[in-house]
């Protein structure tokens, strides 16, 4: 067996996955009203192609991709469009959304399925993935078809299917691997064909032995490897380094190391799209945390409000301190629980008040623990100081743009300094400055 | 004793020779400069702040002397300096258009609805990047005072309502606060203008009303009442064309949300307006 290397740094938080790791995926019926945001991906907002009052079928196109980096959006139910207006979004601001009243008939549009999708050629597979609106479902939301289409002269050696799910609490990908391993394997094969990748490797953290076993049962010639449980093992660049030993150059993209990384949920969605002809209209979401009565994994239609999910998991149990969408490390706290589930939402976590307190910030004691854990090999303490003092040029020289915003530095800091916040600020300012012609 | 005399004499002689040489060189190789440049530099504030757009006071003075820069181009010096510079050049100065910063949001803690608590670093740009701060309105002032922090002239402070206030006497229109604001709600406006639309929300009234009690609901009343056509509606927000506004205050009287305000003490302006 391959000797697995790892990446530099990383942290070992308590994974808190016990309450939902054994919970089978429950298919949640669509709520009476769904809110489908036109922005569920990285890039430009989709352009609506339906109008208020229109009748739509399940899987019908609601918004088409707007520009090169964008993705179409489809209707998760059959029903009527009641409004197209700005609505709360998990990202914090309002996003133009299509509000659909579910008529409960669950009537599909004509599905363009294929009994043996592996026979399709690469361009057709990519086109079907793009038309289905599939984006990176691990949280990045980058359109999958674009990622599978590297520049012409580049040879992709590895397609890495990311089943690490290194964020604590989340078990959505874990359950998907256990219950839908066949679909994931097929999706991996389709993506390998679409991108011309020579070798497929499925990487899973060793805290999910049942997922490893399920995948190996269907894997055939595909290699399924077990990686040590460490955060952020599932980070794109970290995973490439751990699996292949290659490093993505500073400021570069994964294909420069001859690798493409795709999430297991994306592989599952690719199978649904190419084999069954179903666009990306549902996903698995983990609803968990100390204040959730019955933590569960749900397969939900996209556009389901978060409060509906919480209700389905038995509601809140006691006072809620904070509700986070996504993982506890990289997710965002929510102001408004009417925000819907979108393509990149992998979990809804409800914390008790004690867990939600932001501790007072103390001075930096230069212990360099943040340097020890930074998986991007940066000096978070220096970058934070530069961000605080608005020294953007220095921050750029110290590699601020290579920060993957994993939050390890803020997690480990004994002074509880908001390191990541200031590094993120520096990144934004540097990017803004690069865009501005001067 | 002897050594002292020898060294005194030799050093003295050398000193005298060099002094003579330098004196000759300074006369012979002197560069002709416009005496006006020195005179102008004399009356400028001399802090080399660069707000005029030139590298410093000296290069601004050279610019004025060569006609590249306007006589009233020094925003820090204001009317007094503009008058002195104009006298040196020998032209009439029509007085500088002094500009000051205007905060185009009225939604403080009392007016704008909060949707939760934000307990991260107290910096507007970080709050904006972290789920967009704690107010429902995603266009208005975040209230963490990054503009006040950026101001180097003590011309801004945060009031009790959590909004920045400009002390116009101290404002030099350097534009640092404009740069610091992630929401683009600060604008540099000619000092004489006293009517301002203090809202930046591009949403329709249906969404503005629940978020803020003083937001622009795009009712068009100000557009209809304006006698000079200075107000226009764009993306559900009233905008003011300061070139046409005469401070007549008709719009202030009709604005149902009190979004349009009148700053006491500003003069009525006579403007040649086309329509």
Number of strands of chain B: 8
Task: Give the averaged pLDDT of chain B, no decimals.
Answer: 88
Distance between the termini of chain A: 54 Å
Spatial strand arrangement across the major sheet of chain A: 1-14-13-17-15-16
Reported for the largest beta sheet of chain B, the result is: 2 strands, antiparallel
Query: Taking all residues together, what is the mean pLDDT of chain A?
Result: 92
The CATH class of the domain at 113-274 in chain A is identified as: Alpha Beta
**Assembly context of the chains:** heterodimer
> Percentage of helical residues of chain B?
25-40%
Compressed to H and E, one letter per element, the order of chain B equals HHHHEHHEEHEEHHEEHE
Tally of contiguous helical segments of chain B = 10
Question: What coarse outline of chain B follows from CA principal-axis ratios?
Answer: elongated
Largest sheet of chain A: 6 strands, mixed
What proportion strand of chain A?
15-25%
Cα gyration radius of chain A (Å):
21 Å
Q: Structural class, from secondary structure content of chain B?
A: alpha+beta
Give the termini distance of chain B in whole angstroms: 95 Å
Task: Please mark out the parts of chain B with pLDDT under 50 across 5 or more consecutive residues, or reply none.
Answer: none
Can you walk me through this structure?
- Chain A is an alpha/beta fold and 438 residues long.
- Helices cover 29% and strands 19% of the residues of chain A.
- Chain A has helices spanning 18-21, 122-131, 144-147, 172-179, 181-195, 209-219, 236-244, 264-274, 306-312, 353-356, 369-373, 380-388, 392-397, 408-412, 419-435, and strands spanning 25-27, 33-37, 47-48, 55-56, 61-64, 73-74, 79-88, 94-102, 158-163, 199-205, 223-227, 259-263, 282-288, 296-301, 322-325, 332-333, 347-351.
- In chain A, the strands form 4 sheets. A 6-stranded mixed β-sheet of chain A has the order 1-14-13-17-15-16.
- In chain A, helix 5 (181-195) crosses helix 6 and helix 5 crosses helix 8.
- The radius of gyration of chain A is 21 Å and the shape is globular.
- The termini of chain A are far apart.
- Chain B is an alpha+beta fold and 275 residues long.
- In chain B, strands 1-4 form a two-stranded antiparallel ribbon. In chain B, strands 2-3 form a two-stranded antiparallel ribbon.
- The longest helix of chain B is centred in the N-terminal third of the chain and has 27 residues, at 2-28.
- Chain B is elongated and about 100 Å long.
- In chain B, 35% of the residues are buried.
- The mean pLDDT of chain B is 88.
- The A-B interface holds A 85-86, 91-94, 332-336, 358, 361, 418, 421-422, 424-425, 428-429 and B 115-116, 119-121, 123, 125-126, 129-132, 134, 138, 203, 207.
């Amino acid at each position: 067996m391959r000797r697995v290397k790892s990446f530099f740094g990383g942290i070992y938080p308590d994974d808190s996955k016990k309450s939902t790791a054994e919970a089978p995926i429950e298919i949640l019926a669509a709520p009476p009203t769904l809110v489908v945001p036109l922005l569920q991906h990285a890039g430009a907002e989709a352009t609506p192609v339906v109008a208020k009052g229109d009748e739509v079928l399940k899987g019908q196109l609601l918004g088409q991709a707007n520009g090169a980096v964008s993705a179409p959006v489809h209707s998760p139910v059959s029903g009527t469009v009641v409004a197209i207006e700005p609505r709360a979004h998990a990202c914090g601001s309002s996003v133009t959304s299509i509000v659909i009243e579910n008529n409960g008939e669950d009537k599909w549009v004509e599905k363009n399925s294929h009994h043996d999708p592996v026979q399709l050629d690469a361009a057709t597979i990519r086109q079907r993935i793009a038309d289905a609106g599939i984006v990176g479902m691990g949280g990045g939301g980058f359109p999958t078809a674009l990622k599978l289409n590297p520049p012409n002269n580049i040879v992709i050696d590895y397609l890495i299917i990311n089943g690490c799910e290194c964020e604590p609490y989340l078990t959505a990908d874990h359950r998907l691997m256990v219950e839908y391993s066949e679909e994931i394997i097929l999706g991996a094969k389709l993506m390998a064909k679409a991108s011309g990748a020579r070798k497929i490797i499925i990487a899973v953290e060793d805290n999910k032995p049942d997922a490893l076993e399920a995948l190996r049962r269907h894997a055939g010639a595909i290699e399924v490897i077990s990686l040590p449980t460490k955060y952020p093992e599932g980070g794109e660049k970290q995973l490439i380094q751990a699996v292949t030993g290659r490093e993505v150059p500073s400021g570069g993209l994964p294909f420069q190391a001859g690798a493409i990384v795709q999430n297991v949920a994306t592989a599952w969605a690719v199978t649904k799209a190419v084999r069954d002809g179903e666009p990306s209209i549902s996903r698995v979401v983990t609803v968990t945390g100390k204040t959730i009565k019955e933590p569960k994994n749900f397969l939900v239609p996209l556009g389901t409000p978060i409060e509906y999910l919480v209700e389905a998991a038995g509601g809140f149990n006691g006072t809620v301190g904070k509700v986070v969408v996504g993982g506890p490390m990289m997710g965002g706290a929510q102001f408004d629980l009417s925000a819907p589930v979108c393509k990149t939402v992998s979990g809804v976590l409800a914390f008790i008040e004690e867990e939600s307190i932001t501790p007072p910030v103390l001075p930096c004691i230069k212990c360099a623990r943040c340097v020890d854990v930074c998986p991007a090999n940066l000096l978070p303490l220096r970058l934070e100081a530069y961000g605080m003092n608005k020294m953007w040029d220095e921050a750029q020289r110290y590699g601020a743009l290579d920060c993957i915003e994993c939050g390890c530095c803020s997690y480990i800091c004994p002074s509880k300094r908001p390191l990541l916040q200031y590094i993120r600020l520096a990144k934004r300012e540097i990017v803004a400055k690069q865009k501005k012609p001067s | 004793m002897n050594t002292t005399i020898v060294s005194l004499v030799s050093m003295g002689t050398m000193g005298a020779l060099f002094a003579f040489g330098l004196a000759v060189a300074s006369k012979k190789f002197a560069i002709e400069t416009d005496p006006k440049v020195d005179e102008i530099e004399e009356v400028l504030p001399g802090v080399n702040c660069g707000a005029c757009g030139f590298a410093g006071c000296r290069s601004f003075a050279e610019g004025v002397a060569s006609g590249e820069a306007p006589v009233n181009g020094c925003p820090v010096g204001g009317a007094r300096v503009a008058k002195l510079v104009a006298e040196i050049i020998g032209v009439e100065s029509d007085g500088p258009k002094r500009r000051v910063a205007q905060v185009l949001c009225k939604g403080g803690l009392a007016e704008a609805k909060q949707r939760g608590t934000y307990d991260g670093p107290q910096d507007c740009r970080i709050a904006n990047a972290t789920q967009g701060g704690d107010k429902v309105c995603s266009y208005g002032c975040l209230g963490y005072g990054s503009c006040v922090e950026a101001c180097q002239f003590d011309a801004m402070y945060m009031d009790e309502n959590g909004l920045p206030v400009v002390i116009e006497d101290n404002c030099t229109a350097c534009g640092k606060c404009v740069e610091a604001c992630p929401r683009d709600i600060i604008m540099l406006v000619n000092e004489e203008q006293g009517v301002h639309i203090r809202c930046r929300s591009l949403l329709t009234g249906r969404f503005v009303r629940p978020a803020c009690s003083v937001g622009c609901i795009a009712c068009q009343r100000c557009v209809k009442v304006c006698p000079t056509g200075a107000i226009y509606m764009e993306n559900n927000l009233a905008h003011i064309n300061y070139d046409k506004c005469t401070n007549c205050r008709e719009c202030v009287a009709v604005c149902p949300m009190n979004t349009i305000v009148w700053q006491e003490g500003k003069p009525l302006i006579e403007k040649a307006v086309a329509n």
